[in-house]
Specification:
Pfam families: HAD
Strand order of the largest sheet: 4-3-2-1-5-6-7
Order of helices and strands: EHHHHHEHEEHEHEHE
Number of domains: 1
GO molecular function: hydrolase activity; metal ion binding
Structural class: alpha/beta
Number of strands: 7
Organism: Lampropedia aestuarii
Keywords: Hydrolase, Magnesium, Metal-binding
CATH architecture: 3-Layer(aba) Sandwich
Protein name: HAD family hydrolase
Oligomer: single chain
CATH superfamily: HAD superfamily/HAD-like
Largest sheet: 7 strands, mixed
Shape: globular
Distance between the termini: 23 Å
Radius of gyration: 17 Å
Number of helices: 9
CATH topology: Rossmann fold
Length: 229
């Protein structure tokens, strides 16, 4: 088996992989705490989280709910809240091992890419904090410079992660075969479509289904979050 850092492309999921938590859930709770949402939103947030883990919610419905939380404001109007969110919620949940893992790939000369089902507005602060220059995320629609609350294009989730990854490869002038020699770090069975396409799939603090699949197929299993396997 090749040494751990011998390949040029390293892909990373974010939630429960590098971040000890779920960015969408944390963002919803953050907005509620600061009085920016109605309290009845929390029940829907919790249900979506459970349905996501069980694979019961569609990519569109999942992404559309979190897109709706940003509706009616411009990117500039959200900037202050996103910085506060980074300080209060994200940085405390990024373990040293997560920074180190990304930095090790970068130091080895690899191209590191964050690929997350979260929307770009929520994901980009985490991407910048971890030193990613490439971030593939669910895109949100704007109209007149204001978020509409709708998703734009294909959500970066499940099979959509594969489609968006292949589109990114084309944008970079890389052939699809690049994935055959790439790493992908993820915690979730929802990422099995893309994990199955890379040469080195790595399960990070995996959910039970992914853990079982990883063990059965001889994949690396890592504890990056320091919470045990």
């Amino acid at each position: 088996m090749p040494s751990l850092f011998s390949r040029p492309l390293a892909l990373f999921d974010l939630d429960h992989t590098l971040l000890n938590g779920d960015g969408d859930d944390l963002w919803c709770r953050f907005l509620l705490r600061h009085g920016l949402l109605q309290r009845d939103v929390q029940a829907r947030n919790e249900q979506l989280g459970a349905d996501y883990r069980a694979g019961l919610v569609s990519a569109h419905d999942f992404s559309a709910f979190y897109a709706s939380l940003l509706a009616g404001r411009s990117p500039a109007q959200w900037r202050h809240w996103l910085q506060l969110f980074l300080v209060q919620e994200i940085r405390p949940r990024l373990p040293t091992a997560a920074y180190a893992l990304v930095a090790a790939h970068r130091a080895a000369g690899h191209t590191v890419v964050l690929t997350t089902a979260s929307n770009r507005v929520i994901a980009e602060p985490s991407a910048a904090e971890l030193g990613f220059h490439h971030c593939i995320a669910t895109e949100l629609a704007l109209e007149g410079g204001v978020f509409t609350g709708q998703v734009q294009g294909t959500p970066n989730m499940r099979e959509g992660k594969c489609l968006r990854m292949h589109a990114w490869l084309i944008e970079q002038g890389l052939p699809p075969q690049t994935l055959a020699s790439a790493y992908f770090y993820s915690d979730s069975i929802n990422d099995l479509p893309l994990l199955s396409q890379v040469g080195e799939p790595i399960a990070v603090n995996p959910d039970p289904q992914l853990h079982q699949h990883a063990r059965a197929n001889g994949w690396h299993v890592l504890d990056v979050l320091g919470i045990g396997l």
